[in-house]
Write a structure and sequence with these properties.
The protein contains 8 helices and 6 strands; from the N terminus they run E-H-H-E-H-H-E-H-E-H-E-H-E-H. It has 212 residues and is α/β, with parallel strands linked by helices. A 6-stranded parallel sheet has the order 3-2-1-4-5-6. The radius of gyration is 16 Å and the shape is globular.
Length: 212
């Protein structure tokens, strides 16, 4: 079961970890991934969460900038009412997961979302049992800009997997959210140390819009 997530302050640019590599987002090479922004997962933050509000607002900015720059945008969404055989070991850690109560949908504030842009996701890593790698290859893209929830689980695992596929991942510090400030900081530090560039919404938006 998901925890109830207390509010915390999203990492500011000044508090981002130092990156080991100096990759830059290139709108001709990038795809924007909006990871698991489903009502079920956002409900864990409650109605008055500033971290959820800011994360959603920053994802909206990046989606708008991506669309202006003809950067493809994909969403992941876990399916509701999974059979235990489909859910596998996730059942042991998280129980049955999303039920068929409408909360499997991408949150309304990120809509509209075309069904063709949604990848059905089965594990933490968005590359497992999906066509994400094929979508990137077919679009001629070798960079993945990762936003969404939760930073230390699916977002980090997907960024790590992108690295393993020789796709440059960018984990957006203030367009991802997590269980706590500590979990969030851990995800960013690991990514910066081992597999990705950690950056922020302002920087990527500027890249998409050609301002740098």
């Amino acid at each position: 079961m998901l925890p109830t997530i207390a509010d915390y302050t999203l990492p500011a640019a000044a508090r981002e970890p130092d990156n080991r590599v100096q990759w830059n987002v290139d709108p001709s090479r990038a795809m924007l991934l909006v990871h698991d922004m489903q009502q079920y997962f956002i409900d864990a933050y409650g109605d008055e969460s500033t971290v959820a509000e800011r994360t959603i607002g920053n994802i909206r900015r990046l989606r708008s900038a991506a669309e202006s720059a003809s950067v493809p945008v994909c969403f992941t969404a876990q399916p509701p009412k999974q059979d235990p055989s489909e859910r596998g070991l996730l059942w042991d850690f998280w129980g049955p997961g999303i039920q068929d109560d409408g909360r499997h949908a991408i949150i309304d504030s990120l809509g509209p979302v075309d069904d063709a842009d949604v990848i059905t996701k089965w594990r933490y890593d968005a590359f497992v049992r999906t066509d994400l790698a094929t979508r990137l290859r077919d679009a001629g893209r070798d960079q993945l800009v990762v936003t969404g929830v939760y930073a230390h689980i699916g977002c980090l695992m997907t960024a790590t997997s992108a690295f393993m596929h020789d796709i440059q991942p960018f984990l957006i510090a203030d367009a991802t959210a997590d269980f706590s400030a500590d979990h969030h900081a851990m995800a960013l530090q690991y990514a910066a140390d081992r597999c990705a560039v950690v950056t922020d919404t302002d920087s990527v938006e500027a890249r998409f819009l050609g301002a740098v």
